[in-house]
Amino acid sequence: MKTENILTLISRIILGSVFIFSGFVKGVDPLGSAYKFTDYFNAFNLGFLEPLALVLAFSLAALEFLIGISLLFRIRYHLGVWAILVFMSYFTIITFVLALTNPVSDCGCFGDAIILTNWQTFFKNLILIPFVLHIFWFRANSQESFKPLFSWLALMVFALAFLGVEIHAYRHLPMFDFRPYSVGTYIPDKMLIPEGAPEDEFKTYLYYEKNGAVQEFTEDNFPWQDTTWTYVDSKHILVKKGYEPPIHDFTIVDDTDMDIASNLLSDNGFTFLMVTTHLGKADSDALEYGSTLAAWCEIAGHSFFCTTASGEKAIEEIRQSINPGLGFHTTDEITLKTIVRSNPGLLLIKQGTILAKWHYHDFPDLDEFQDLLPSLMIANRKALENRTLGLFITLFLLISVSLYLLLPQRIKAK
């Protein structure tokens, strides 16, 4: 095998694998990708584009996944080569700009599976560019695996299968939960700072005035012995970020401005936590369910909390329309979006451990809470996740092997 063929194979495997992985981890959590698009829109004062965030999230994940499939299995290979060249050229420039400006600290290129800074993303792209240039330069030496008509059909099958994964993840919960609030998590452990972990480092600037002129000093050279200078102001600049635990902002504030999160995490009983980022955008039937669940919990001896990022006006409107006695607590919007990808969503917690999570499309009947032990709920949830994962992997492998090896339409390499 010629050297360029070996390098082409290596390049195809690396680029195809990276793009399939990147597309997949975004596709199983399209709402998370939509949040990231919204963050960038707001950072660049493009808030009017926010309605497009979800469409872009679906599209970007599918595009990356299909480019990876194209390169790895040589399905519409030459189109895939041109697509990755344009894609990488555009996003390498974009990531360089983002690295310089740093409008959003986490680039989101691998979803929540792998967190990269903007500079790390830029250097990652620089590493991939030589592989892209190689397959582009030698693209004429690589032959398609299938005839044109069947190639388009194959890509369509992959696209429809991937779209099904995205829609399922959007209407339910992600089959893979890479966030720190996944089922089985003991929340207090994710809030700990290890002994000896690096701390935030700040640089302090001091401002003193003399003869009407204000001058900037540091802690090493400020005129502390010269009484002719008058202190004016100071500022602290973060120069190096220290260790930040995976969960660092879990607060639940009641109407007296007290944080009751520690009480919830130490409760020996079962706690149902309903999470709704914006009450005005929440599913009304699901909020009605929450009101009924709160009443059931009071009778059954369980705890129920509903936490939101909405203001008092929205809370009062919901109270009047659903249940005047339904209590609401306040939590940061980003935290709520991280906890569960549903508005509203529901968690079952016991002694700080997340036993189960539900999208509002999947809220169980109240009878199920009486009939099923929490351990059985976990087992059912884990079994569902494993079945979903197993089904996806099996279908992917079957389609891939069938297309690449077994079908007679395959064109034999020269």
Question: What is the helix content?
Answer: 40-55%
The major pleated sheet works out as:
5 strands, mixed
Spell the H/E element sequence.
HHHHHHHEEEHEHEHEHEEHH
Number of DSSP helical runs? 13
- The rough form would be described as flat
Number of domains: 3
What is the beta-strand fraction? Answer: 5-15%
Strand order of the largest sheet: 6-5-4-7-8
Q: Gyration radius, to the nearest Å? A: 26 Å
Give the rounded overall mean pLDDT.
83
The tally of beta strands, per DSSP, is 8
Low-pLDDT parts are 405-414
Class per helix and strand makeup: alpha/beta
Q: How many angstroms does the end-to-end distance come to? A: 12 Å
Explain this structure.
The chain has 414 residues and is an alpha/beta fold. It folds into three domains: 185 residues, no CATH class; 40 residues, no CATH class; 111 residues, Glutaredoxin, CATH 3.40.30.10. 51% of the residues lie in helices and 13% in strands. The protein is built from 13 helices and eight strands. The strands form two sheets. It has a five-stranded mixed sheet, sandwiched between helices. Strands 2-1-3 form a three-stranded antiparallel sheet, with no helix packed on it. Helix 10 links the parallel strand 5 and strand 6. Helix 3 crosses helix 6. The C terminus is likely disordered.
Topology:
Blueprint: H1 3-27, H2 30-43, H3 53-73, H4 77-101, H5 118-137, H6 148-171, H7 187-190, E1 201-210, E2 213-218, E3 230-240, H8 261-266, E4 270-276, H9 284-300, E5 303-308, H10 312-321, E6 329-330, H11 333-339, E7 345-350, E8 353-359, H12 366-371, H13 374-406
Parallel strand pairs: 4-5, 5-6
Antiparallel strand pairs: 1-2, 1-3, 4-7, 7-8
Helix pairs in contact: 1-3, 1-5, 2-3, 3-4, 3-6, 4-5
